[in-house]
Write a structure and sequence with these properties.
By secondary structure, the protein is an alpha/beta fold. It is built from 19 helices and 23 strands. The strands form eight sheets. Strands 1, 2, 3, 6, 13 and 14 form a six-stranded mixed beta sheet that branches. The chain has a five-stranded mixed beta sheet with strand order 17-18-16-15-21. It has a two-stranded antiparallel ribbon with strand order 4-5.
Length: 533
């Protein structure tokens, strides 16, 4: 579309917006009627460790939302010369899981407990055993049950609990609802009914009956909606919350709020059976839409969640991915600046990450660990970062950067081994998106080696979740009577430009050698956690 045509759509209130709360960035993406990204705005933020809990304050959430939207408005004005006052459809997505608990007056009872926390091990284990269904530490129900087990006073006053996306959606619409994908990270879902599992709801209530808390868990959970269903409209209060200038009109259709797993599936056209995607940024997870249920529950290793339209998907999730090599690249940038050099951030990233392709297949024997936080997949409640090597190892910058990219996928591969080797899960297409893939030809090649399978990326991979959320909002506005899979295939990805790289034998062998050393040396990480405060 031409700039003039896009400007006309925006001024006519026909543009669609998706906003996603990532771990380090809140990003807004606007799409036109051709589903192409045409404007964006962002806000960088960081979680805080407060009293041993990873959290973001409600004030930070509001400021981040408003700033990212203000930057979107600014981008629209600068690119198209029009004001953004009306939106056709809007969707909110965010990092999944976690715990936002409110009383009957909508007062937050305890600081937001994010997915990054690994403080619910007892609850996770007991619920997994009780349900015979994987209930990870990150899940909202694990946080609620752990608070009950801990005897926390606030649990008797809980009237509603939800995820970050659910909370922001509530502020915009007044609706306590959640897309089924995000809801599947709160409590187990029954694929047949497309709702919370009734049997497990009863089991949970029986578990806590002696506590006499005065509520049933089903009454505290948000209502589940499927992709394409309306999830309310932007209220006058919600419009003011999103845009304090008062320029944005109320009445916008809102799509069901979703989690970043679901938006990643949408952004990579991976919502049908035998498709999968890898979302790699601050954290990393791989999703595979299942043909049949797994043979058993894999505690702390494999999650079962759903696509935004309710199909079951297996998720291997690792808390840590790019965060540590981001810090190393920043350090190298400081070193360059200290010598009087001046290199832009994109050039710095592309140059250093590009060196990884010149390293030895096995990284010269270098083994770094990127555990900024705990890593359930490999059994760590706390994280440390370190680099292990022998004097004989080939310690070069190329090998160091290759090792950083490899280790970013180490915990993930631990989970994928279960799906591929133990469950014989079949996959026709694995598509990657997120910051890990931004440097052309690098992340995709390393991912293919680590996953032992061809990996594809699309031109829109860098847009990731916020674009996926915008697509879900567009689908809610005009499903055209199609399933989500058909809608994406026919209206979004029909002419998509896709790059696919098959793994090279030497890279696969190199990663396997690295992974063998990575796994063997985990006791070193354990010693670091136990002895380094």
């Amino acid at each position: 579309m031409t700039k003039e045509e896009i400007a006309k759509e925006i001024s006519g209130g026909n543009a669609v917006v998706g906003i996603e709360f990532g771990s380090t960035r809140i990003k807004a993406v606007m799409i036109d009627s051709a589903n192409e990204p045409v404007a964006g705005g962002a806000f960088d933020w960081e979680n805080s460790l407060v009293d041993g809990v990873w959290t973001y304050s409600l004030e930070e959430i509001a400021n981040g939302l408003q700033t990212s939207f203000a930057n979107l408005k600014k981008d629209v004005s600068e690119k198209y010369g029009v004001k953004l006052t009306k939106i056709k459809a809007l969707g909110i997505s965010a990092m999944m899981h976690g715990y936002l608990a409110f009383d009957k007056n909508d007062t937050l009872l305890v600081p937001f407990r994010t997915w990054r926390n690994t403080i619910t091990g007892e609850a996770s284990s007991k619920l997994t055993d009780e349900f015979n269904y994987p209930v990870p530490e990150r899940w909202s129900i694990s946080h609620l049950y752990q608070a009950i087990l801990n005897g926390e006073k606030h649990v008797g006053n809980v009237a509603f609990f939800t995820t970050l996306a659910g909370y922001v959606h509530y502020k915009l619409s007044g609706k306590k609802v959640l897309g089924i994908g995000d809801a599947s990270g709160m409590f187990p879902i029954d694929e047949k009914t497309k709702n919370y599992d009734k049997k497990m709801l009863g089991q949970f209530d029986a578990l806590i009956a002696e506590k006499k808390l005065g509520w049933k868990v089903e009454d505290l959970l948000p209502e589940i909606l499927l992709a394409g269903q309306p999830a309310g409209t932007l209220t006058a209060e919600g419009a003011k919350f999103l845009d304090p200038t008062g320029e944005l009109e109320a009445g916008t259709l809102l799509a069901p709020p979703e989690g970043d797993a679901g938006t990643g599936m949408v952004a990579t056209n991976s919502v049908t059976k035998r498709t999968g995607n890898v979302s790699a940024g601050t954290s990393v997870f791989a999703m595979v839409v299942l043909e049949k249920a797994l043979s058993k529950a894999y505690k702390d290793l494999i999650d079962i969640v759903t696509t935004p339209d309710g199909s079951m998907a297996a998720m291997a999730h690792a808390n840590n991915c790019t965060g540590e090599y981001d810090k190393w690249i920043k350090l190298f940038g400081e070193a360059i600046a200290a010598t009087g050099g001046n290199v832009s951030k994109p050039v710095l990233y592309d140059t250093l990450l590009g060196l990884a392709l010149k390293g030895d297949p096995d990284c010269g024997g270098i083994i770094p660990y990127n555990y900024i936080s705990g890593e359930s997949m490999t059994g760590f409640k706390e994280g440390r970062t370190l680099v292990v090597r022998q004097q004989k190892n080939n310690f070069t910058l190329a090998n160091f950067m290759r090792a950083q990219l490899f280790t970013a996928l180490g915990a993930l591969r631990t989970g994928m081994n279960i799906l591929f080797d133990k469950e014989n899960v079949a996959i026709d297409r694995l598509t990657g998106h997120g910051g890990y893939f931004k440097t052309a030809g690098v992340g995709i090649k390393i991912m293919a080696a680590a996953m032992h399978t061809p990996v594809s990326t699309m031109e829109t991979a860098g847009e990731g979740g916020p674009w996926g959320m915008a697509l879900l909002a567009a689908y809610a506005a005009d499903t055209k009577g199609q399933s989500l899979g058909d809608y994406l295939e026919k209206n979004v990805f029909k002419t998509a430009k896709i790059t696919t790289i098959a793994p090279e034998k030497s890279d696969v062998e190199g990663f396997n050698k690295f992974f063998e050393n990575y796994t063997k040396a985990l006791p070193v990480m354990k010693a670091a956690v136990e002895n380094v405060d």
